[in-house]
Description:
197 residues; alpha+beta; 5-stranded mixed beta sheet; 41% strand; globular
Amino acid sequence: KPYNLSFEDHIKKYWQWIISIPSEVSPINDKTGEKCGYDQLNSTFPVFYLSDAGGGKVERTCNVPAGKGLLIPLMTVEVSDKEVANVSIENLHKIAKKDQDSVTSLYLKINDKEYLFEDLKKYRAHTSDFEVNFPKNGIFGASEGNSRAVADGYYIITHPVTKGQYNIEFKRSLICPGADCLAPNFAQDVKYTIIVD
């Protein structure tokens, strides 16, 4: 229970945060890191969320307050009834699981320490269903309003970071066969320069 919260609850809170942000200011769509602190810099919550980038290669610089843990979304999926219409909760679970069962590579580097797929496999987690709230102009093309969601994937939560600079890179890919895949072919390389002050 990092920071007195279950691992699953951390993942749910991460997705509730990222989904609540309009697409035009979403850290997922941010190419430079300018928006990485959205709704976080003045928060008393002990964990600071990094975000993925929806595919491709990005390099971001992000300022993080000292004393916070970092949540690194190594390889993640969230699926809701706003994104896949007329689907039962049971099928949301199946879609999320199939997506992450299809992961072909996973890599993390923090400063000079490298972690390979074998090291990272134990950090996979699948959540129960939970409520999210999409704003107007929400991410993933979802319409505004409440939705039930399920998440799966690989998430790392670090110890609190102290002042200094940290280089974090995470890469991942998947190949998902079949019509019920969210992304049949996905690859991403995200580099963060984290400045802690």
